[in-house]
What does this fold into?
Amino acid sequence: MGSSLRELRERRRSVSTTKKITRAMELIAASRIIKAQNAARAALPYTRELVRAVSALASVHDIEHPLLVDVEQPKRSAILLVTSDRGLAGAYSANVIKAAEQLHAKLTAEGQEVVMYITGQKGVAYYDFRRRPVQQSWTGFSDRPTYDNAREISKVLLDQFLRPTEDGGVDQLHVVYTRFVSMLTQTAAAVRLLPLVVEDAPAGPDRGSEELNPFYDFEPDAETVLDALLPLFVANRIHSALLQSAASELASRQRAMKSATDNAQSLIEQLTREANQARQAEITQEITEIVGGASALSE
Amino acid sequence: MSRPPLQVEVVAADRLVWSGESVNIIARTVEGDIGILPGHEPLLAVLVPCVVEIVTADGRSESLAVDEGFISVAHNRVSVLAQVATLGHEVGLEEARREASTLEARAMQGDADDDELHHLRILQAQIRAGERATT
It folds into this structure.
């Protein structure tokens, strides 16, 4: 009896230590998520201006550029998979890896060879464990990506895309990341990044006639501007995918840690109740023994 | 001047660096230096790493170092887009000078690759912008 009481108390103590840890992780994730959201918001003006510049070009010229050419029979595709470096974020990495696997299967079924690029330790571990080849991976920045990270990645991917298919280049580039819809909803999404699809100016009633595309002067000329602009556009898309994934990762982690904390709390309550019962039982037994002993003596 | 001042935004990839009104902007495109006054015709130009100087509506001058990017002008709105943009007073002069001198030494010996040369040009622009901000 005495030993079971001690065991219960020990378990309770260990659960409450765990609870402290998960609670701390929850709070950390909650404070970082605000930073991540701010970072995502701070990148918006750049995206807006970039889109405006690209659509200005698109509306003036019939543009032709290697980054825009759609290959009819793509032979090889690259997938950039954005995962987290650390676990304890619920199904975050599992979901995005699953989405990548679906895309992988789809592309393979179309007869394409698939080349994997991965960011985040979790994705790397998944592929390593299954001994599947990964062309290149980047780790160490999943919860606070900087633009430099995105730039480095886009440089490698653009090189790969612009290389002829015979030399190991790819015809398409897909990005699989987690879209941050809200604090409660994050969905894994697969988008085709290259070849780029340039939409004509988001012309429309909502922007007013004053915003109609003017006749731009291009310096030095439209082709050069386009040449310089499109790589930036790609880097920007990757940057935004990384930022969204970071926010999603933190949101998932916060949620996972919150439910872990809640579970620990209910476990603690249950263990406390059991420990109290055991203690009460012990006391009752002692009293019974004393009373029994005393009455045996008096007889 | 009768024309209304330019509405300027300088945006880097990860933040809005500067915004405000300006009466004159000087930047360096691949073709050479360019000055933009209010009422400039619509323009989209490629920038090289350089110092962008913005003369504000109240006559002050603001210097920024930018990495390669763009300047676009339309409807009296100017936006300077750069992957990296640094305000003059944000530049760590000491550190930039130190880094620049090591890179310069390498460049003189012909050891520097394109990336390093590019980085050197950015550093030089940052140093210029930083010096202007402190004087």
